[in-house]
From TrEMBL:
Protein name: Non-functional NADPH-dependent codeinone reductase 2
GO molecular function: 3''-deamino-3''-oxonicotianamine reductase activity
Keyword Oxidoreductase attributed: yes
Keywords in alphabetical order: Oxidoreductase
Lineage per the UniProt record: Eukaryota, Viridiplantae, Streptophyta, Embryophyta, Tracheophyta
Domain NADP-dependent oxidoreductase: 18-286
Stored Pfam families: Aldo_ket_red
Residues holding substrate: 117
Gene it is expressed from: LOC105056367
Annotated family: Belongs to the aldo/keto reductase family.
């Protein structure tokens, strides 16, 4: 397989544009994750996206150790590993200990990218299920100070955010000493994030796309991306899969992307997007697709919540 192109973050670190996502709910058996990651490394994947709440850090760490031992990779330094701070640790005093715990589980001395997973704080145990009843006040500037400390100590080579709107990034930038390197958000041809991408580009913040195929199968996902007639037409005309068209579209938008798959054929297919192009005409037609955000954060929105509407939660970016 070919080498995946890299972009350079504002931290000066290179990041492969294609990563393997590992967010699955309910959590799969650890052995499933381990085997898929090892196979991905055999195919040439070097960027792996995890989070403390996914349950994938331990099998990812095992796969890294196995790959080094078997000579699939020369050293850990060949990899780009992302993990994330979960909402229950969104307090300045919890950030560094949370990362240290993730590193212990991963069996690593550092991660390449550490992200604030969501711009909210929750009480209770660490779990994927979120509830508006669990929302606590959060001081994001002080949490960001904790993130900056992680970078200063060399435990995270780059730091960033996820699910941040233009408004939330603007507020963060009034306090931040270190610019977020990445904002990882939902992005695909049916939710193109034009306003947010333009804003982040102006600030020097790289956009990374999660669920670049629409997250069909997730509780909030949809098949509207892969079932879009224009995407079907383009795929058929080029002899490519619909997923490949979506990932190539993202690549031509200048973003990185972390599709989740544990399927060997799809992992291979996702790599095969760098030696062909979508035409300007096809890109134009895709730009006209009706837009819809799928991840509305339903569980966090209610009449009695801090967030009364989806527009409240996403600062009007819905």
């Amino acid at each position: 397989m070919g080498v995946v192109p890299e972009i350079v973050l504002n931290s000066g670190r290179g990041m492969p544009v294609l990563g393997m996502g590992t967010a699955t709910y309910p959590e799969p058996p650890e052995q499933t994750v381990f085997e898929a990651v090892v196979h991905a490394m055999e195919l040439g994947y070097r960027h792996f996206d995890s989070a403390s709440v996914y349950g994938s850090e331990r099998p990812l760490g095992r796969a890294i150790s196995f790959a080094i031992e078997k000579g699939l990779i020369g050293s850990r330094d060949e990899l780009f590993i992302t993990t994330k701070l979960w909402c229950t640790d969104m307090h300045q005093d919890h950030v560094l200990p949370a990362l240290r715990h993730s590193l212990e589980v991963l069996g690593l001395e550092y991660v390449d990218l550490y992200l604030i997973h969501h711009p909210i704080r929750l009480k209770g145990e660490k779990k994927m299920e979120m509830s508006s009843d669990d929302i606590l006040p959060v001081d994001i500037p002080s949490v960001w100070e904790g993130m900056e400390e992680c970078q200063q100590q060399g435990l995270a080579k780059s730091i960033g955010v996820s699910n941040f709107t233009c408004k939330k990034i603007a507020e963060l930038l009034t306090h931040a000493k270190v610019l977020p390197a990445v904002n990882q958000v939902e992005m695909h041809p049916v939710w193109q994030q034009g306003k947010l991408r333009e804003f982040c580009q102006e600030k020097g913040i790289h956009i990374s796309a999660y669920s670049p195929l629409g997250a069909f199968g997730a509780f909030w996902g949809s098949n509207k991306v892969l079932e879009a007639e224009e995407i079907k037409r383009i795929a058929q005309s080029l002899g490519k899969s619909r997923a490949q068209v979506c990932l190539r579209w993202a690549f031509q938008q200048g973003v990185s992307f972390v599709p989740k798959s544990y399927n060997k054929e799809r992992l291979k297919e996702n790599m095969e997007i760098f030696d062909w192009c979508l035409s300007a005409e096809d890109m134009e037609k895709l730009s006209l697709l009706p837009q819809e955000r799928f991840n509305l954060a339903h569980p966090l929105v209610s009449p009695t919540s801090f967030y009364k509407t989806h527009a409240d939660y996403w600062d009007g970016e819905v």
